[in-house]
Amino acid sequence: MKKHDPIPQRAEAAARIVVDAAYRVHSALGPGLLESVYEVCLCHELRKQGIPFLAEQVLPVVYNGVRLDAGLRFDLLVDESVVVELKAVEKTLPIHEAQLLTYLKLADKRLGLLINFNVACIKDGIKRMVL
Prior knowledge:
alpha+beta
């Protein structure tokens, strides 16, 4: 897959499901909790819908042709196509976006969602990123 190819429909569908699930979680809990709480609840929503995902997956770094465990973990990989990075911070920063872009690159995925649950309106906390 090349950078200029459209995002596959499977990834687009998975991203929509994640966004809908994030809306449900945020509507029920609101802002102000720990990231881990939102992650558990989001995983529960995805499980209820039968959407495959991996949580807290180790993401190795390949350096000089060697796969190294550098302690990187992405929050969620949904339907083998969308990397989801969750936050519960006052404001997302450029470093959070850089983190997601790096995870996309290392995981060889194109579509990512940066979701900050510590907002009054969840639509203000969701950023879609494409590599």
